[in-house]
Amino acid sequence: MSLRTAYAAALQLLRTRGEISQRELADAVDPSYVSRLEAGTRSVTLDVSHELAKALGVDPLTLLALAYAAERGQTPRQVVDQLVRDLESTGLLGSEIPPLPSKRTHPVVAASLELRAQIRELIDQGFSQAEVARRLGVSRQTVSNRLKKLS
């Protein structure tokens, strides 16, 4: 079963068990969109899933747990137990997660910046471009290009 179809089944289950019509979810999401989600013809975003769960009166994770249970042919308990095992085995169960992703520099960019700093330092010490290239194990053209970017 596809995850889209499983999500459709979970959404429909929660909505019908709560005796909520698609139209009653209109404050959260357009009824035609809910209809397409339940038909399995549309994928859902995390933001929309969050709004639907709130409108259905459940935690957003409940809706996702039901969807994954349907997709895997498991009970929600089995899905939650697996989730806890995964979080424990990775040491993340008791971890505080930062609210925003870190702004990490790509390794290639970091290496380039480091090389540029090394070139600058050697040039400032009075070495020629050829000597800098030999010391750093790069071509003279690389040294020349980095110096142009420093100017």
Automatic annotation (TrEMBL):
This is Helix-turn-helix domain-containing protein. Transmembrane segments: none annotated. It comes from the Bacteria. It holds the Pfam family HTH_38. One of its GO terms (molecular function) is DNA binding. PROSITE patterns: HTH_CROC1 (PS50943). It comes from Pseudomonas trivialis. CDD domains: HTH_XRE. Gene3D superfamilies: Homeodomain-like, lambda repressor-like DNA-binding domains. Residues 11-63, 125-145 form the HTH cro/C1-type domain.
